[in-house]
Write a structure and sequence with these properties.
Elements lengths: L4 H4 L12 E8 L7 H14 L3 E8 L1 H4 L7 H15 L6 E5 L5 H10 L4 H5 L2 H7 L8 H16 L4 E4 L4 H18 L8 E4 L33 H10 L18 H14 L3 H8 L4 H15 L1 H11 L2 H30 L6
Parallel strand pairs: 1-2, 2-3, 4-5
Bound molecules: adenosine-5'-tetraphosphate (AQP).
Adenosine-5'-tetraphosphate binds next to α2.
């Protein structure tokens, strides 16, 4: 029996339920539109975390986005704000703001880059992946961006950071930077943040190739479900999604070596808020053609209304700007105090 969505979803899938979390910071790059991977791997957890943390910051990290060239950054930033609101980020309970609108991020980023060590950065695997073969042509920003990410987190005294698979190493770096800074300049300046790991939906893969992750920058939109996709587009992408010729297995072991099958089952499980084993119990033996119809049904239920709400919000630009302006005011007011402490600890001259 499949569990009813309304009983289980949304919920903080792996969040310690008995414990109220302190301060949470997380960010998303407006480097394109929000897709199903962003939603299942991050944003739905962000929504749930609003019920169990004392203070939350969700940031549109545009300074990270420009580490590779962007042609429509302004529109993408606004539509990413609309997407987050449509998915359930509540701008009253969470501080929703644009990174570049609070200059403390880049100011602290520079200070921390004088604390971080070259050796630490050179171990970051994401740089190697994103820069590809032609590293000499990668921007300095792409290399240094984990330091800016550390600044984003430490600026607000975040105690917990929801991290996807690919960000775990960057959070480790943030912890190293915080500890090194505190040791050099004063023990109590930065809190050392803990990762919040969500296993469900942690790595949604491309619909065209189960070995690469679903991504905003994948050139073909056929590999991803975008929040802007209506039912027809979703159905067409799922029907064309790569699969193999066998039927679905009834046990998890039967997904081994079947990356595309594993991905589709994982997407379905995450959307329903249930485990893979439970899904396979009910769909084992089913053909992909039939399973794809079931998957389209759950995508219609969970994603299509969010896409419609996003389109509505995109039509109200003034509202979006106002939300982000208020977010910026709240963010700046909260980071100012820590920046004063940092400037003083590092010995900068205060000229009034
Ligand atoms: N495919 C994915 N599966 C699960 N989680 C994902 N995330 C991204 N892709 C997947 C999570 O979404 C959050 C925000 O991601 P981001 O915008 O900071 O950057 P990203 O991880 O680089 O996302 P994209 O879509 O792949 O963007 P581009 O193509 O611009 O690099 C993060 O928590 C991330 O883990």
């Amino acid at each position: 029996m499949m569990t009813n969505i309304s009983d289980t979803y949304p919920r903080p899938v792996d969040t310690p339920s008995d414990e109220r979390l302190g301060c949470i910071f997380s960010g998303i790059q407006p480097s394109g539109g929000l897709h199903l991977g962003n939603y299942l791997g991050a944003v739905r957890h962000w929504v749930s975390l609003q019920d169990c943390a004392r203070r939350i910051f969700y940031c549109l990290v545009d300074c990270h986005a420009i580490t590779v060239s962007q042609e429509r950054l302004r529109e993408q930033t606004l539509s990413m704000a609309a997407a987050l609101l449509a998915c359930g980020i509540d701008a009253e309970r969470s501080v929703l703001f644009v990174q570049s609108s609070n200059p403390h991020h880049t100011e602290l980023g520079w200070m921390l880059s004088c604390v971080a060590r070259m050796g630490w950065l050179s171990r970051m695997t994401q740089f190697k992946e994103k820069a590809g073969k032609d590293r000499e042509q990668a921007s300095v920003g792409l290399y240094a961006y984990p330091v800016l990410m550390a600044a984003d987190i430490l600026l607000y005294g975040a105690t917990h950071v929801p991290v996807g698979d690919d960000q775990k190493q960057h959070l480790e770096l943030t912890r190293d930077i915080a500890q090194r800074f505190n040791k050099s300049y004063g023990e109590d300046i930065f809190s050392v943040p803990e990762p919040l790991i969500f296993s469900s939906g942690a790595r949604v893969m491309s619909l065209r190739d189960g070995s690469v992750k679903m991504s905003k920058s994948e050139s073909s939109p056929m590999g991803r479900i975008d929040l802007t996709d209506g039912l027809d587009a979703i159905a067409s992408k799922i029907r064309k999604a790569k699969t193999d010729s066998a039927v679905l297995p009834s046990k998890e072991a039967g997904l081994e070596g079947r990356a595309e099958a594993k991905n589709l089952v994982g997407i379905y499980a995450a959307l329903r808020g249930v485990g893979i084993a439970e899904v396979l119990e009910s769909v084992g033996g089913m053909s992909f053609a039939k399973f794809k119809d079931v998957l389209i049904g759950v995508l219609e239920e969970v994603m299509v209304p969010k896409g419609e709400e996003m389109r509505r919000l995109c039509g109200d630009k003034n509202y979006l700007i106002e939300v982000l302006r208020k977010g910026r005011e709240r963010a700046r007011a909260l980071s100012e105090e820590r920046m004063k402490k940092v400037r003083e600890a590092m010995g900068f001259l205060e000229v009034g």
